[in-house]
Amino acid sequence: xxxxxxxxxxxxxxxxxxxxxxxxxxxxxxxxxxxxxxxxxxxxxxxxxxxxxxxxxxxxxxxxxxxxxxxxxxxxxxxxxxxxxxxxxxxxxxxxxxxxxxxxxxxxxxxxxxxxxxxxxxxxxxxxxxxxxxxxxxxxxxxxxxxxxxxxxxxxxxxxxxxxxxxxxxxxxxxxxxxxxxxxxxxxxxxxxxxxxxxxxxxxxxxxxxxxxxx
Length: 215
Fold this sequence. Notes:
Layout: E1 17-20, E2 26-30, H1 37-43, H2 60-67, H3 71-83, H4 88-117, H5 121-134, H6 139-152, H7 155-175, H8 179-190, H9 199-212
Helix pairs in contact: 2-3, 3-4, 4-5, 5-6, 5-7, 7-8, 7-9, 8-9
């Protein structure tokens, strides 16, 4: 890896490791022996690979929609085909794809439940927003929309969500290597009593520690 192309990965010695979260932000760096499993698990919560589909020719329209994460449209296309399948092969493929995409949607909702139990509403809300968009008009999308709406009416959860938005703004600055700007944004969450006791504040404090090493 050329140093001039990836200055954020420069180190003074080896071995040296970096932990990057699903949004592409370096959230930890140091000697690999110091990286704990709990730290890795914390930063990959809610992350999962999106399903990819390779369907028969008669299902290419559904394949395009599904692989573009337009799951509701892909589901509609598959269901339309199943009303009058072209062949046993396409019928089997359509049923399998339907099962896979529906299972994916439900698994993401389950991930949201797990994150909410740990008060990680920032990552949970991001998943819900993605589900609401990609499954719009489908039951999964409606569940995601309803869950978000309910959270916004809960003062404690709304506080977590507001803080998470600020943390995301800081992460954007981190990705752009604007360390000073990122630190200033993170201080909005880590200073004062407003966000005291929130999960988002814990995340912000850890990010701030990483950012300060860059200043």
